[in-house]
């Protein structure tokens, strides 16, 4: 059976999720309290309904319990976001992802058992800041408070050397998990993989080690 998704809150974030899920051929139920927003999605989502999701009976009548994954993307109304999540949890929804507005909101969502909490604006802000500060960092993904994965552009200093000669793991404590060259991608590269200037190295490590690598090698 096809996986069924529901997205509650059709703002910029929830709306983009509905579009992307539909583009991938998924079944999506799109829900919002606002009629105009719902109308916008009536031709995009599998079903689009007007509903206040803080009302348990409404969620029951939509059969939300049978959806494998429900995304709560209610923006500023923290109370509605928290109450909706709580009801979904109590109804036994398999997986609940919630967009958090701030740290307080996240704390409450964790307590009531949201499976995944996301901070799209905060995370995107951090990613873009890293890209702006360093011309060699093309993308950045936070893995924990101290660890990240970054895409680094190979510098002239690295040109023609292989991974043994660069010795990135021993010198900087970082791991090169893949190398991208144009359309080719070498995943888990061998030690003798040679690097060309302009290759993209996908590196995992502690933030301070990645910073040292950036300073010395790019
Ligand atoms: P974004 O920051 O992603 O653009 P918005 O705050 O604009 O988010 O969107 C949140 C959406 O959630 C709005 O369309 C709003 O109508 C909807 N919403 C708010 N409260 C409820 C609720 N109780 N039930 C269903 N949808 C709601």
TrEMBL record:
Transmembrane segments: none annotated. Residues 135-218 form the RCK C-terminal domain. InterPro entries: NAD(P)-bd_dom_sf, RCK_C, RCK_C_sf, RCK_N, Trk_Ktr_HKT_K-transport. It comes from the Bacteria. Pfam families: TrkA_C, TrkA_N. The lineage of its organism: Bacteria, Bacillati, Bacillota, Bacilli, Bacillales. This is Trk system potassium uptake protein TrkA. Gene3D superfamilies: NAD(P)-binding Rossmann-like Domain, Regulator of K+ conductance, C-terminal domain. It comes from Fictibacillus barbaricus. Residues 2-118 form the RCK N-terminal domain. PANTHER family: KTR SYSTEM POTASSIUM UPTAKE PROTEIN C, POTASSIUM CHANNEL PROTEIN 2-RELATED-RELATED.
């Amino acid at each position: 059976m096809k996986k069924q998704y529901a997205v509650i809150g059709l703002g910029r974030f929830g709306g983009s999720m509905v579009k992307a899920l539909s583009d991938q051929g998924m079944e999506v139920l799109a829900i919002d309290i606002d009629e105009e927003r719902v109308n916008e999605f009536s031709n995009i989502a599998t079903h689009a309904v007007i509903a206040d999701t803080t009302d348990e009976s409404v969620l029951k009548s939509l059969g939300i319990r049978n959806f494998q994954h429900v995304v709560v993307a209610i923006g500023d109304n923290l109370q509605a976001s928290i109450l909706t999540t709580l009801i979904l949890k109590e109804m036994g929804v398999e997986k609940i992802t919630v967009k958090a507005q701030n740290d307080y909101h996240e704390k409450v969502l964790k307590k009531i058992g949201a499976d995944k909490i996301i901070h799209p604006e905060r995370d995107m802000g951090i990613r873009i800041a890293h890209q702006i500060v360093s011309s060699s960092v093309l993308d950045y993904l936070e893995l924990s408070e101290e660890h990240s994965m970054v895409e680094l552009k190979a510098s002239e200093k690295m040109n023609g050397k292989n991974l043994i000669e660069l010795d990135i793991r021993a010198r900087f404590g970082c791991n090169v998990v893949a190398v991208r060259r144009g359309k080719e991608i070498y995943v888990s590269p061998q030690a003798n993989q040679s690097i060309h200037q302009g290759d993209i190295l996908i590196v995992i490590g502690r933030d301070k080690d990645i910073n040292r690598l950036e300073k010395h090698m790019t």
